[in-house]
Amino acid sequence: MARRRRIPAEPVEVCIDSLSHDGRGVARIDGKVVFVEGALPGERVMFRYTGRRRSNDEGCVTEVIEASPERVIPRCEWFERCGGCSLQHLDPDAQIAAKQRTLMEQLQRIGGLEPPDILPPLTGPRWGYRHKARLGVRFVKAKGRVLVGFREKRSGYIVDMARCEVLHPVIGGRIQEIAEWIHSLQGCQRIPQIEVAVGDEVAALVIRHLDPLSEEDRVRLQAFGEQSGLHIYLQPEGPDSVSLLWPDRSRLAYRLPEFELEFQFLPTDFTQVNSELNRAMVKRAVSLLDPRPDERVLDLFCGIGNFSLPLARLAGEVTGVEGDIGLVRRARENAARNGLENVSFHAADLTEEMSATPWGRKGFDKILLDPPRSGALEILPWLRGLGATRIVYVSCNPATLARDAGELVKRHGYRLVSAGVMDMFPHTAHVESIALFER
Predict the structure, then answer these.
(1) Cβ 425 vs Cβ 86: under 8 Å
(2) What's the CATH number for 132-198+203-250?
(3) What is the reported pTM?
(4) If both were cysteines, with which of 67, 137, 198, 348 could 168 make a disulfide (CB 3.0 to 4.6 Å apart)?
């Protein structure tokens, strides 16, 4: 049995060399890496060990002896405990610079690439930007009440918070009010989470409940909806069980004014967290892809048509492909509502090549990729045979983007033209990025 590594009881002084990809300060003690929560590059701090491993140690700041000039006072009073943000103590411009460095380091280290052109970062609102979130709910007997919020850093406990500075104000300013209403329910101890979805005009809460709600609880939730204006959905089981409680009809939607488009969606559908940044991201992606009236464009991992419909405004024909049949259905409905007849949507397993499908046998002039964190490695060989002269890759994980970029360049005949970051999640270490490849 391996011996348990003893954690020093007293705080230790250390100088911070850099910032890790998850937003922690990086230092070395006797040659061993230590990740220090709450520390910034260039700082001298006292920290307390919180864990020791064979490869690295972990800790959290107890005192900042020499502060970085880029250190700022966090706006949120729960920042030190809450896992929703990790970088509120770092100046926002420095956050962007750190994310850009992360992207370039990953492209070079994993993909062996350096883009000739680094795109200027896309930025948007820094507070109240989150339109989608999943909040934990828990009745805490010791406190005698329900807590609603994000979970603590590296913990399953829910932060005892009254408001959230990064959630859209219609939700972020009501955390305590929502918690009090949930506490008033007979079944409050069997409600584990609330999903938040905010459109341009409507905000919705999806209440996950493990046991059937009493009629009295349903009445109370309806009253909360009427009082707050929030649309209330119930979810007794999986995502397919979601149903609207109040009002009789709900219409969640967001707009892309530049393309004269409106997208309707369900509260559990995947949509981008940051609506304003999403508008800028779509504009950049379309500009980089530069679709022409005589071209066929393929949009993979298309969701509800976030990129497909804007592309269809300019291209001759657009084909959108998505693994979730529900999202495909919404994409088709959105195309019809917006009067677009040159776009089609298909459900397919996007971990496999699709040459056997009628639409997959056709060639495409240009391709847009917006995969999940795992990337698109499995289908890159198939993409090579489609003949596209240009690929725009939107990524939520710079590591898998770098890996796939290396494959596209070294094995599939493309070159990396440009890349840059987009600040979809301010005050977090999450790096959203975009890259352009040409054959």
Answers:
(1) no
(2) 2.40.50.1070
(3) 0.94
(4) 198
